[in-house]
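Thread: beta-N-acetylhexosaminidase, structure

OP (GT): Posting the sequence first so everyone is looking at the same thing. Length is 597 residues per the record. Can we get the structure tokens written out before standup tomorrow? I want them in the notebook alongside the other entries.
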Amino acid sequence: MDEREPGHHALPVHEPAAAELARAATRAADDLLAPPSGASDDRPAPPSGAADDRPVPPARVRLGDVVPAPERVTPVPGADFVLTPDAAIRVSGDDARAVAGQLAALLRPATGYPLPVTDATRPEPAGGITLTLAASADHGPEGYRLDVTPDGVRIEAATPAGLFHGVQTLRQLLPATIESPLPVAEHWALPGGSITDRPRFSYRGAMLDVARHFFGVPDVLRVIDHLARYKLNHLHLHLTDDQGWRIAIDSWPRLAEVGGAVEVGGGPGGHYTRDDYRRIVAYAAERHVTVVPEIDLPGHTNAALTAYGELAPDGVAPPPYTGTEVGFSYVDPTNERTYEFVADVLGEIAALTPGPWLHIGGDEAFKVRPDAYAAFVERTQRVVAATGKTVVGWHQIAPVAHAEGRVLQWWGTKGEDPVTADAVHRGARLVLSPGNHAYLDMKYAPDTPIGHDWAGMIDVRRAYDWDPGTHVAGVPADAVLGVEAPLWTESVTSRAEVEFMLFPRLPAIAELGWSPRATHDWAGFRDRLAGHGPRWAAAGMAFHRSPEIPWPAERPTPTKRQAAIPTQADHPTPSAPQTAIPTQTGPEEAPAPGPSA
């Protein structure tokens, strides 16, 4: 799907400011990865701890500084826990062991502590972190309880997913330097008290468009880490469009070989092999993120038609397309060969995808007659059902006959949509991605160097100030599965640019999906979010230093050099000075698992 309305002019592919941003990001990455002068390739020992070596201490983290906001926070003054070099992570049961290993991997680089994972004993010894799975825990399938006392930290949940979300909260309660890939001299204290937490909506996600510009497996894994950090649990991959087909299909090999060979602007494109896709899915699953693959049909199919001209209405393969217009291509809805193609492709994707969802697109097929469009979508919905998956489509499929369990992804910009409301009354559920609040390819401000503006500017407050439960008129809250923040990539070409567009808006969408409505408060959110800037910088992430957010002053650290990345198109504002931001390789970029069986 492309978010532009009919007749919208082609967008510039890559402005000079964006190219400069990407080059600076690459330099920053090289600087961050380079060991300090004279250092060996071995992991450096923790700093000596001498007073002169220590950075200026940041503001103390409070128990309520978590993003997304927890359901209930109960601080206990004076009950802080200090993580020490001899601390261990204890688990009750093998199902908690994998999460404990992830926690240890998050904490070891910055602390330099060994943090062994061991079995829990009774009574629990003081001084460690305990992860407990308890069937009686009344936190739902993704909730948790976290307790911090002077004697230790305990996270309890009914499922490994709940424990994992609790780990992300624990991570935020430590000083921001916990995100450093190198050991840091720090007082590793967590504020005392308890947090009880669970999500408002079951579906909380983001979308990455890999069709307009292709992003390799490491970039996708990095995005998964970003989602997991803020308790988002779905990654929607827009795998096909006019400019590229990005997933190998055994029964139609030219789709990837020919259709995946270009991208917007004429670059080399690329595609995922089946093993690449398995690697992405497995990495996501370990972080309790479900991959939602999208094959956009019947429009947005020029790349497929280039590979197989027999699918085109006139039977002639068009040339590759590297522009950004929409609505001109479609597979022939009257040709039985088209439905063989649909069944083969969706069948192979379904077999590779353990999650329940299969997204069929369905938007902007402007040249398909309404009756032919309805017949195509209804038949494709039945194909999806035959694979055992639940169909998801952009809300343009709303008028067609209902399929059991189907989900509409709504990207409108006005709350009045009687056609979608009617589909909900017939049984459809919604994932909300309003274009003027959740589309993270929109510019922050007129001088943002990359991005679109057809839905207006989306600053952080605009991304935050709406309620998914009441946003679409006539749609009850219980028909809303959740929220998703799409990032389309006509003008986004690198990992640094992806991160720049995601942050700081992605946490705003994450809070809408996770936190109770009663916690929604812009002033409180912006203050909590401000403390995450130093975390992102320590992790080597690019982000927009929005003037809306009271970012703390940055303190340089002696362990790494940083290259400046411009975050406004030539016009830095006095209220938001442009600071150096490293952009690559943080502690969340752990080695990915090998292909699953």
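GT: Both are above now. Quick notes for whoever picks this up: The CA atoms of residues 461 and 522 lie 7 Å apart. The radius of gyration is 24 Å.
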